């Protein structure tokens, strides 16, 4: 996992509530055995009609091409616990998701895969939805910079650390390798 850097990008406004993991990446595309390649299927049923991009879907708007920040309404990532949803968002290029609320399992999967989910108030989210300029997300400073005005957000120190240092579960375990070796030596069978 790559260490999280400051992200400066136009934000893609997905103006929908209760976006579930089946909508993020439909089940028929879960056949891949690696974490990459899912981006092409992100919001597939909303982005395409019979394989043709729909002009009325926000991800097909050229103004949001290469956006790294996704804005979403309440309860983003609800539904099944599939990690593929986070893989699809990451593979597509999103590094930050800002919403008022996330489903718990989805929220945890974001951190395990290097995506920063930020919870904000309804008022803040509405302000972000109405801006057309780039915004900057600074994890170190825990702020979202909009038109040179900082909006602070909370993140648990442990989660902040793993994103800033790019530590997945295996890397976190390896930080304790010396203690693991001592334990294994003292418990030989």
UniProtKB/TrEMBL annotation:
EC numbers, comma separated: 4.2.1.33
Domain Aconitase A/isopropylmalate dehydratase small subunit swivel positions: 1-122
A GO cellular-component term linked to this record: 3-isopropylmalate dehydratase complex
Source domain of life: Archaea
UniProt keyword list: Amino-acid biosynthesis, Branched-chain amino acid biosynthesis, Isomerase, Leucine biosynthesis, Lyase
Keyword Isomerase attached: yes
GO MF term (any one): 3-isopropylmalate dehydratase activity
Pathway, per record: Amino-acid biosynthesis; L-leucine biosynthesis; L-leucine from 3-methyl-2-oxobutanoate: step 2/4
Any Gene Ontology biological process: L-leucine biosynthetic process
Catalysis: reaction(s): (2R,3S)-3-isopropylmalate = (2S)-2-isopropylmalate
Subunit description: Heterodimer of LeuC and LeuD.
HAMAP family per the UniProt record, alphabetical: LeuD_type1
Entry's family note: Belongs to the LeuD family. LeuD type 1 subfamily.
Annotated function: Catalyzes the isomerization between 2-isopropylmalate and 3-isopropylmalate, via the formation of 2-isopropylmaleate.
Record's protein name: 3-isopropylmalate dehydratase
Gene label: leuD
């Amino acid at each position: 996992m790559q260490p999280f850097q400051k992200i400066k990008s136009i934000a893609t406004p997905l103006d929908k509530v209760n976006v579930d993991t089946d909508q993020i990446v439909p089940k028929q595309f879960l056949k891949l055995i690696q974490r990459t390649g899912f981006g092409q299927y992100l919001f597939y049923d909303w982005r395409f009609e019979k394989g043709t991009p729909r002009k009325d879907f926000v991800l097909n708007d050229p103004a949001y091409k290469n956006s790294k920040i996704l804005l979403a309404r309440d309860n983003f990532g609800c539904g099944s616990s599939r990690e593929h949803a986070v893989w699809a968002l990451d593979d597509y290029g999103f590094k930050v998701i800002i919403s008022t609320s996330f489903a718990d399992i989805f929220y945890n999967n974001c951190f395990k895969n290097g995506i920063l989910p930020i919870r904000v108030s309804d008022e803040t989210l509405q302000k972000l939805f109405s801006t057309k300029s780039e915004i900057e997300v600074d994890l170190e400073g825990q702020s979202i910079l909009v038109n040179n005005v900082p909006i602070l957000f909370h993140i648990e120190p442990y989660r902040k650390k793993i994103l800033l240092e790019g530590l997945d579960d295996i890397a976190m375990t390896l930080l304790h390798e010396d203690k693991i070796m001592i334990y294994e030596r003292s418990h030989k069978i």
